[in-house]
Amino acid sequence: MTHTTPPHTVLATVDLGSNSFRLQVSRVVDDQLYALDVMKETVRLGAGLTAEKNLDEDTQQRALACLARFGERLRGFVPGQVRIVGTNTLRVAKNAAAFIAEAEQKLGFPIEVIAGREEARLIYLGAAHSLPDTKERRMVVDIGGGSTEFIIGSHYKALVTESLPLGCVSYTLRFFPGGKLTRSNFRDATLAARNEIQRIRHEYRPSEWQLAVGTSGTARSLRDVLEINDWSRADITLAGMEQLRELLIKQGSIDAIKINGLKADRAPVLAGGLAIMIAVFEELEIEKMIVTEGALRDGVLYDLLGRQREKDMRDSTVGLFKRRYHVDAQQAERVNQLAERLYRMLAGEDVDQDMLKLLSWAAKLHEIGLTIAHTAYHKHSTYILQNADMPGFSKREQAALATIVLGHRGDMGKMAQYISQPALWQAVVALRIAVLFHRRRQPLALPEVLDLKQNASGFELKVSQSWLQENPLTASSFRQEVNQWKTVGFKLDIVQE
């Protein structure tokens, strides 16, 4: 039996950025969040990427030491209170999986590596909650350590999202070797950034938005420096940034940077961030940009708050996919209800609520591949779920969804390489058997005796003998299923009662 827990009054998030790691603990009051504690450490994870795209050992150890401190702060929290997200560097690092496994031990909570467009959506959500709720369309730009996110949105909804591989850490390392601040280095960096931004320019032209907004460290640093040095008034402007660039060129090197209002931890990556922001202004024809304090970690917290209040973005995404791929909603719901029932049988009193949600979403989306072809449609469904932009879902959640859907039909021998988690096996079994029962795609009177249990050798399905005699096609499918499960070392016993 499961129990509904009341919403948490304190939430926490950790943002594992390519430049800085940030932890924020916030108190929930009605529909608003108020910060209780904020921790930031400049880890520069992105600077630890080798030419082979591996995180070097020194950077890993520096990051893990930081996360051990964060982990101490998070002691006593439960999973529903905490969400930890990784961004560009953890998306591209080839050895990210091994690092994440160690990092999760330090933190005590799972890490979600989010896609670029999901990062953009969350950034906009955080920015929107720190701005007046006006009707204008805003273009939000967030220059991070390894990527830059561009979002056009209105109110609290992101309408257009994009993520480009432009980062203040990566661009400083790439275009300012040895820390040299020359005119040619700035020119090369700005042109390279403009070349990337040109690919999305048609969607972000000035006619599409009324207000430009900057978020996160680069934007805040530029605003502060320009204002303190009287190069701009509270906003970022192209003229002000050009004056800053001239000063940096005169100073000649990153080690020699001395500028009023510039924090010490921002100086090593200022050149790359400035070149990118100049490119953004020039390519998107921005006259001025305001800066807001809300960013990714705030968006993650508000998204987590929404999940508590049954306003889960993932439900909206599943609904959108059902419409986009013309899912037979009645069939999906029939399969969903039986799959959830079977999973609860397998799990007993220890129901994994997160896995139950994933199973429900998988049941609703398992046939989306039919829009491509009936033959091997489960593989088409799997490919879509693995690779599509799915707002609200982490990469790990998408992978789990894809695995459950892949296993719902076809050769079971393929599944052993994808599944190690017992709850995931249970979800695959539940969906697979639910699909077999509902093959006729019509309302079905289920057998009076129906039970599914897991034992030491595999799974045992109990079905009324009279029901199987009345449904010979399903009975035949179950006999074939017994042989399928032998290929993965499990027994599936069909007990007729």
UniProtKB/TrEMBL annotation:
GO terms for molecular function: exopolyphosphatase activity. It catalyses: [phosphate](n) + H2O = [phosphate](n-1) + phosphate + H(+). CDD domains: ASKHA_NBD_EcPPX-GppA-like (cd24053). Signal peptide: none annotated. Residues 314-481 form the Ppx/GppA phosphatase C-terminal domain. It holds the Pfam family Ppx-GppA_III. InterPro entries: ATPase_NBD, Exopolyphosphatase, GppA/Ppx_hydrolase, Ppx_GppA_C, Ppx_GppA_N, PyroPPase_GppA_Ppx. Keywords: Hydrolase. Residues 25-307 form the Ppx/GppA phosphatase N-terminal domain. Belongs to the GppA/Ppx family. NCBIfam families: exo_poly_only. PANTHER family: EXOPOLYPHOSPHATASE, RETROGRADE REGULATION PROTEIN 2. This is Exopolyphosphatase.
